[in-house]
Amino acid sequence: MTIEGKTALVTGGGQGIGQGCALALAKAGATLVLNDRPGSAELARTADQIRALGGKCHTVEGDVFCGEVRERLVAEAIDKAGAINIFVSNPALNIRRPFLEFELADFERIVAATLVSAFHMSQLVARSMVSAGRGGKIVFVSSVHAEMPFANNVAYGASKAGLNHLAETMSVELAPHRVNVNTIEPGWIDTPGERAMSSEDVLEREGKKLPWKRMGTVDDIGDAVVFLASDAADYITGATIPVDGGFRFRHCAPGSSE
């Protein structure tokens, strides 16, 4: 599943799942254009990691949550790399709070950051792909939250569900242009964000309760992205692929009580 000669734009690529996707794509032969917020030290470190592997990497700083920034980002990415063949849309925002207490402004902010930004960035990239006439690959990083109604996550879950439907609709409209559009749903993944909320002992203990007996890793997500970005997935579009080690069905095994 090599993708030699392809250029991939990864948003939110400085750390966590975005970083895992970027490193996996670089190892598979892609030239990377990495995006993260202005002044991100993580962005510089990830770019250095890719170059240390012998890969090519450009960086484009900018907050994709801001509408006026997105057109500049895509134009800058194309200017630096020549074209975008693969787009991985990764950033999101979450605030956990009971539905009855959720502020409207926070709901709108999460939808804008998670769904609206993905729509606009993918539209801009897709236009460049269609104009170039060489097809392309678009992969959205969604979440099992899109299908599972977790309490205190109403805005995030609704945004991710909308993201899945966005991808399906895009896949229908972009099929004549040979642009594959697919979605990955990570389960419980070991990321810096998770480690900020839980200790190593908690993550190890809870991971053992999952069907695969471990937490997911950013490499697991990166490997799935490489597959969907490769020619091996040429006949896959409009698909939603959970990469969760069975997280969605963890209560279904015989004898399972939690």
UniProtKB/TrEMBL annotation:
<dbReference type="InterPro" id="IPR002347">
    <property type="entry name" value="SDR_fam"/>
</dbReference>
<dbReference type="InterPro" id="IPR020904">
    <property type="entry name" value="Sc_DH/Rdtase_CS"/>
</dbReference>
<dbReference type="Pfam" id="PF13561">
    <property type="entry name" value="adh_short_C2"/>
</dbReference>
<dbReference type="InterPro" id="IPR050259">
    <property type="entry name" value="SDR"/>
</dbReference>
<comment type="similarity">
    <text>Belongs to the short-chain dehydrogenases/reductases (SDR) family.</text>
</comment>
<dbReference type="InterPro" id="IPR036291">
    <property type="entry name" value="NAD(P)-bd_dom_sf"/>
</dbReference>
<protein>
    <submittedName>
        <fullName>Glucose dehydrogenase</fullName>
    </submittedName>
</protein>
<dbReference type="GO" id="GO:0032787">
    <property type="term" value="P:monocarboxylic acid metabolic process"/>
</dbReference>
